[in-house]
């Protein structure tokens, strides 16, 4: 019997949020019965312990809706759907209609996909500022690739391997673009800027100059030492599609059961024929007359 135990040490609320600064223990129990006495041993193993392109201006006459996409990238700038807790990622927002100068992030929340029990949303960015800068960094303008980006440490929420991140992005028309937010890191009391803005002040502007869109992306997050094929959480609704071999044959459950039963019956009949033939051969040998010459 084996279980994964997570001890929350990161100070991130709610406690359902699992980050690289938590401690992970794989607990395995070996219970044996000897002389009607239960004797067992528990083995605890620590798995993981912390440790210039010109600005593209959105014209005022750009027709709505302005669309964008939210994607996760690895450090090689490759899109991904799966990561391990603590992996450095990039959360990227890009648009074919607007550049980083004309986009700002107002809110971001994370929720789990599937699983059982109550799912508590985890706020990543609030009023344009990241709540936990060590986990989700400030939103930066990437003019080289015409996008917004934020450095993220992979995390997950208890009860599921899949995390859905939803962000509200506002688009600002005109040459001035979107203003930045001045944020305070409560851990270090340091001020920093992020390319988001308080939602109220943003909406206070004329609606003709601003439009908003909610974006979402899903990522599967595993702990160190976990295998995706061995996942056993019920209700996990997200599937990461993997290519099947060319010679793979799909069979329905009923057809598979019938094939197994038919093969078992054939094997049973062959075994019965072998036994009957063996018994018949032994009985025939006993009835054969002796050809040995007796010497007196």
From TrEMBL:
The chain crosses the membrane at residues 259-282. It comes from Mesorhabditis spiculigera. Residues 1-190 form the ZP domain. GO terms for biological process: anatomical structure morphogenesis. PANTHER family: FI18240P1-RELATED (PTHR47327), PAN DOMAIN PROTEIN (PTHR47327:SF3). InterPro entries: Celegans_DevNeuronal_Protein, ZP-C, ZP-C_dom, ZP_dom. It comes from the Eukaryota. This is ZP domain-containing protein. Keywords: Disulfide bond, Membrane, Transmembrane, Transmembrane helix.
